Amino acid sequence: MAEQLVFNLTSAEKKSQSPAERRASRQRFELRRASLKWLLETGRPTAAALDAATRISKFRADIAAFWSQPVRNMHDEGPSQILRPVRTAIIQCCLTRAECWPDCARSQELLPKLCQLKEQAQAQEAEIRRDEPELRDGASLFEEYAVWRYEDTVNPEYHRIRRAIAKTEHAVYRGSQFERIRQAALADQLYLAVPEGLIQPRELADGWGLLWVRNDMQVTVAQPPETRNCLDANRMHLVQNMAAASADAMRCVIGLQAHANGRHSFVRPPRFHRRPVHASLGTEQD
Questions:
Q1: Smallest Cα–Cα separation from 213: which of 190, 189, 192?
Q2: How far is CA 286 from the centre of its chain?
Q3: Is the dihedral of CA 41, 46, 48, 54 positive or negative?
Q4: In sequence order, what are the beta bridge partners of 91?
Q5: 60-72 vs 81-93, strand pairing mode
Q6: 100 FRET partner, CA 20 to 30 A, in 111, 245, 255, 274?
Q7: Buried b / exposed e across 256-275, counting CB within 10 Å, b at 16+?
Q8: CA-based diameter of the chain, in Å?
Q9: pLDDT of 244-264, one tens digit each?
């Protein structure tokens, strides 16, 4: 929470960590910082938050964001236009491959199989585009933005491969945080952010986008996510969880400490350094 925002671990917490743990904590912090910077600069969301719950309390999103648009207020009271969330996104940040999948003894066996199946699916999709041009969405003017209804193909081999992909993905991702977040259906777009090259696009579950973070903190979109249209109520659920998560940051900035009985005490607010620094994903900063 607060320490993730300003990285002000106490001296006791720092002493309890080994040098390797301190380095990993710093790298994890920088991974999230680079991903948030990329999101704010390229996406320009209405708001973003750290550690927003995707369900009532479990499975927190490392970074969550939403975009709003003004719509006409259908009621007689209040402003003539109100803001409505029209898109949401979640970014999960992982520093190691082990964090990306549950403790499955067969994961290393299944991942190459999953990659092979997705390569076969892409080859079949190329054949579908050639043999069944009627499946192309006519609303797309440019080929790179064309949408194809592959699910409507008469190609039996493609359907067999897609069933095999779904079965393999279920075996790999079952019970993982990524699968639970996807099932919550709160985000129109889902991203996994990792150090550059750690995860390959074909190792992802279908629908997820992949961000590669270089050592110099630059972010590359290794694979764009599929956009799903979430329900308005689901988007609002995430927006409210983002507001709740941001309350901890607000208390930290203003110098308030929350207690279990609901009371707050005044504490010294953190000092924020505004001088630019050279940030690096792989180098621990003092």
A1: 192
A2: 28
A3: negative
A4: 63, 191
A5: antiparallel
A6: 245
A7: eeeeeeeeeeeeeeeeeeee
A8: 69
A9: 999 888 998 899 999 989 899
